[in-house]
Each structure stands twice: as C-alpha cells, then as structure tokens.
From TrEMBL:
It comes from Neobacillus paridis. InterPro entries: EmrE (IPR032713). This is Multidrug resistance efflux transporter family protein. It comes from the Bacteria. The chain crosses the membrane at residues 31-51, 71-92, 98-120, 132-152, 158-177, 198-217, 229-249, 261-282, 288-308. Keywords: Membrane, Transmembrane, Transmembrane helix. Pfam families: EmrE.
C-alpha cells in the first residue's frame, strides 16, 4: 500500500505541470521555454540533494561507463515525455491534457513484454519475460472510462485541430515516460538510488534541452519573467518533488510488473488535482454530474487496482513460505 500512497502524492505535485503550462500558454509564453526551463531549474536542486547525500561520485562514474544508454533513455524518458506535453498545452486546456495523459496507465501495462520480471521459484528468484497484467489492465480501463466521462462534455466543444494537436502528442508521451523510466531502472540495476537516477537522467537529457532552447531563442526569443518564475515552480513541484516520489514508488515495486502497473495507475489522480487547481486558479467551469460520475469510477478503479495487486502479492508470498 505504501507505493500506492507515494504515487498519489506524486500525482498531486505532477498536477502543477498541467495547470501552470496552460497558464503560461494563456500568458503568451512559448511551449519551448515551458519545457526546457523546467529541466534547467531542476539541476541545482538535484545537485544539492545528491551532493548532500554524498552520492555524486558513483553517479558520475556510471554516466561515464554507460553514456549511450543514459543519453538514449533519458532523452526518451524526459525529453520525448515533457516536450510533447508542453506542446499540447498550446492547443488544449490543462484538464484535457491531464485526462489524456492517463493513457500512460495502459501504455505502461502494454510495455510489460519488453522487460524481465522477477518471480520466486523453489530454487530461488528467476527472471522471466514480463506479461501484460490483464486483470490490472481491466481496472486501468475502468479508470480511463471514468476519465472520459469526466471530460466528455468539455471535449465536445473543442475543434478537430485542437483534439489532434492537443491529444496525439500526449499519447506519444504516455509511452515515452514509462519506457524511459523502466529502461533506466534496468541500466542502473539497483546501483543508484532514486535521487541519483533523476539527476543522472536530467544531466543526460541536457543535449536535448539545449538544442530545443537554441531553437526557441531563434524563433520566439527569450522567455518572459513571468514564464521563468512559473517554470521554476513547475521544476520544483513536478520536476523534483513529484518525479522523485514517483521514481521512489516504482523502485519499491521494481521487478513486479503488476504492482508497477498499479503504481503507474495512481497518476490518474492528476486529473482530479488538475481539475480542482483549474477551478481555483483559472476559473474553469464546475464539473457536471456526469463528470462527478467519472470521479467515482476513477476512485473505484484505483481501489480495485490496488486490491488485485496486493492480493496477487499475498498469494505469491504464501506459496514461497509454504
């Protein structure tokens, strides 16, 4: 249950991303700076945490030994995840992006066959090819149905262009984030803690953000002071706090694809937090009864997802003890 609670807390801080990215777009800021500034601002905070824990040297050694893997999967997990999210903010409201982002619940489950899973046998732990957790996926579908109901009436008012440019990049990001995160867990293989891994991925993704920043400077100029401040808030809340919490939750269930899918399902709570945040900060419309029905389905799906995950783990533990 602890990884689930940590995942929900991470979802709360992740929700700042959708609210503030939309606010920056409405204020005339470019999605390019919304994306790249977040990771630039993350660096000093992450450096101070890792240095304070006296763990910087092992990270630098690992980066030097595996530069290709770090560069590739950090660019996928951070660059190809966050840049599309910021791009979509120019074409769709934050609540729709947050709702669409929940496709990552299914995306993460569908990626299971690409990874190995640790199972206990009579002779000890054994690595087998991961399988799609269909029971957990059923609960994920229930969560998605709830999310669709929450946003159905608002989405009907959007133009086809807004739907395409506001949704498709988010769908692509929903695969990039769990793919990069899981691949980096394999690369690190328990050698580095979550703080080292987040700092390492931020450092390794810097070439992507530098190239994007140069493009932004040439095309739209420098960011405004307001966008710079809002980007720093996103960096602290979503980039540092939420990312570390989420990675810590996934680390706790590393090697168990069903429990990993359950942790990733907690990110559906971002929709609720983003909706409340937009009501408070951006004067969004109050949810309809149909939307509240969606809220109930999301909560039920979360509870059932966690129950099935823990029930399976209990069965495995009892077999091992026997």
């Amino acid at each position: 249950m602890r990884p689930i609670l940590i995942g929900i807390l991470a979802a709360f801080f992740f929700a700042f991303t959708f609210i503030l990215n939309r606010a920056m777009d409405q204020g005339g800021g470019s999605w390019i700076w919304s994306a790249s500034l977040r990771y630039f601002f993350m660096l000093p905070f992450l450096f101070s945490i890792v240095i304070g824990r006296k763990n910087l040297q092992p990270l630098l050694v690992d980066l030097k030994q595996r530069p290709g893997a770090w560069l590739l999967w950090s660019t996928v997990g951070f660059g190809l995840f966050y840049a599309p999210l910021c791009f979509s903010a120019a074409y769709a409201p934050g609540w729709l992006i947050a709702a669409t982002w929940q496709v990552t619940i299914i995306s993460g489950s569908l990626l299971a066959p690409l990874f190995s899973e640790t199972v206990m046998t009579e002779t000890g732990p054994k690595q087998i090819k991961g399988k799609i957790p269909f029971k957990g996926l059923t609960m994920s579908l229930l969560i998605l149905i709830g999310i669709i109901l929450m946003q159905l009436q608002q989405a009907a008012a959007l133009s086809p262009v807004a739907i395409m440019l506001g949704i498709l990049p988010v769908v692509a990001a929903s695969f990039a984030y769990p793919l990069g995160n899981r691949k980096m867990m394999e690369v690190c293989s328990g050698r580095l803690d979550v703080f080292q891994r987040v700092l390492g991925m931020t450092l390794a993704s810097l070439p992507f953000w530098l190239i994007l920043s140069i493009y932004g400077y040439v095309t739209v100029g420098l960011p405004s002071m307001g966008q710079t401040i809002q980007s720093s808030i996103v960096a602290i809340s979503a980039g540092v706090i939420a990312t570390i919490l989420f990675f810590q939750a996934t680390d706790l269930v590393r090697g168990n694809m069903q429990k990993l899918a359950a942790v990733e399902a907690t990110q559906s709570m971002e929709v609720l937090f983003a909706l409340l945040g937009e009501l408070w900060l951006l004067d969004s419309a109050f949810p309809t009864p149909l939307s509240w029905l969606g809220v109930i389905l999301v909560m039920d799906g979360m509870i059932l997802h966690s129950y099935i995950s823990n029930k399976k783990e209990a069965r495995v533990s009892s077999k091992v003890s026997a």
